[in-house]
Amino acid sequence: MAKEEAVFIGSIDQGTTSTRFFIYDRNARVIGSHQVEFTQFYPDNGWVEHDAMEILESVRMCMTKAINKATADGHNVDDALKAIGLTNQRETTLIWSKSTGLPLYNAIVWMDVRTSGICRKLEKELSGGRTHFVETCGLPISTYFSAVKILWLMENVDAVKMGIEKGDAIFGTIDTWLIWNLTGGVNGGLHVTDVSNASRTMLMNLQTLEWDKPTLKTLGIPAQILPKIVSNSEIIGKIGKGWPITDIPISGCLGDQHAAMLGQACRKGEAKSTYGTGAFILLNTGEEVVPSKHGLLTTLAYKLGAKAPTNYALEGSIAIAGAAVQWLRDKLGIISSASEIEKLASEVDSTEGVYFVPAFSGLFAPWWRDDARGVCVGITRSTSKAHLARAVLESMCFQVKDVLDSMHKDSRQKDQAKNEKGEFLLRVDGGATVNNLLMQIQADLLGSPVVRPADIETTALGAAYAAGLAIGVWKKEEIFASGQKAKTDTIFHPMLNEQLRNKKVKSWCKAVERTFDLADLAI
User: Fold this and answer.
1) I need a labelling partner for 145 at 20 to 30 A (CA). Which of 111, 236, 281, 481 fits?
2) Cα 439 from Cα 412, distance rounded (Å)
3) Could you tell me which of 228, 173, 170, 179 has the C-alpha nearest to residue 59?
4) Distance between CA 392 and CA 22 in Å, rounded?
5) Which of 503, 274, 504 is nearest to 403 (CA)?
6) pLDDT tens, position by position, 277-318
7) Pairing label, strands 107-108, 81-88
8) What does each C-alpha distance from 260 to 137, 280, 467 come to in angstroms?
9) Which range has the worst mean pLDDT, 328-337, 399-408, 512-521?
């Protein structure tokens, strides 16, 4: 019997603090990977920026190292690599020169809040206030989204103003920047984005999947700087010269949270939560656009082909999750590595009434308060660093519970997928989910099971699935059947009694209220 020809799919996973490149075989097993961290810049209070050129170099290095590792292990990557998928941090905004290929300003990161003044101004001027564009794009006016970051660049960066006037400036989220450079850059690079990333700009119409002309006119954003919108799974273009691999099609592109949803094989009625720098919970609502009345975002889930149906989602975005653990490590020195927090937090059975709300740059869903700032309440003389560590873990889980409670209110019970016991299962992924204590706290506070897959890196896997689907390596049925393979999943069941759970939730809500209207305290 002839040996089956090897087929590999590559996946670029460009996150908020690091870039990774994975190589998967036909069975979706990783045969090579590499990760590179890059710099975050904080030029002012609440400002967060990236060097787009550093990101570009991180992709190049990850590709080279991962291919070398796989090759050293005996895999013929040069011949067997058939396509590349791409997933990225969403909303992060960049404007660059199409003639020089150089950024006209640093990339403004999704969590950056410098645009709060622009948001307040728009809310006052527009008839619909904060929700003026919700019916069209599903998103409220917020510092989170790309449109207001574009406005800030247009108003404050002379190079951007001049570039737009000359027709030389183009906009993109990080997926667009990478694809443009991968496919040739100044020598014919393709200026495209995908529907999931476009849905996070505040500029795309959720129904037509095109840039919304009335929105562009209202905001004064010129259409000519925007990229072409494509589906999540189709051949976009081929990688050009100067990269570790060339002439390979880029055939999958999704924003990171949408990629994780695909990697988790979430069907209609199923939800996933990704724990990274922030935390992001998405519930697949199928082909129905479900408006939220409880502080969530109506967004796109995925569109797996140019002619494929569009799946939508309700999303709750949490700005600070794993970043709070990094804060404990880097700013307070309570731990020396992120992995130490589980052991430290396990030294105590409870926080003893300490509640930590990491509103470092305001609160996202379901509160949407950019005037909020972080608080730690309930401290006594017996409070130790272990109590604080446990309170940080609990803060991540409380925020996820706030979002899921809103999701249950917005979506009909019959549209929520449940197990044979009638329990709603939350699928989890992301680096922080290796923390068993965190996952148990999450199940306890939800009062329902939490399911962790054997492979928690579902974001990169989702991008690989999209790329492989476009060139026929996998079929859609195979991808979604993978979500039913639960033999290697770890399930965390709630152990906290309902009375104590409800008491803790009330206390958390009190702590959240203490964060409001604190932005002006900074001197």
Assistant:
1) 236
2) 26
3) 179
4) 31
5) 274
6) 889 999 999 998 988 889 899 999 999 999 999 999 999 989
7) unpaired
8) 21, 10, 14
9) 512-521
Q: Is 28 helix (H, G, I), strand (E, B) or coil?
A: coil
Q: Tell me, rounded to whole angstroms, the distance of Cα 277 from its chain centroid.
A: 9
450: three-class secondary structure by DSSP: strand
Q: How confident is the model at residue 1 (pLDDT cuts 50, 70, 90)?
A: very low
Q: Using alpha carbons, select from 159, 149, 154, 162 the residue that is nearest to residue 203.
A: 149
What is the C-alpha separation between 225 and 161, in angstroms, rounded?
A: 12
On whether the CB atoms of residues 393 and 445 are closer than 8 A, the answer is: no
Helix (H) or strand (E) holding 111: none
CA distances for 275 relative to 84, 190, 432, angstroms? 24, 32, 6
Query: Are the CB atoms for 65 and 245 separated by under 8 Å?
Result: no
Residues whose CB falls within 8 Å of the CB of residue 308, separated by 6 or more in sequence, listed in order: 231, 233
* Nearest of 39, 155, 170, 171 to residue 92 by alpha carbon: 171
How many beta carbons lie within 10 A of that of residue 503, not counting itself?
Answer: 11
Number of helices followed by number of strands (H, E) in the chain: 17, 21
Residues 291 and 302: their CA atoms lie apart, in Å, by 17
State the Cα–Cα distance between residues 73 and 465, nearest whole angstrom.
23
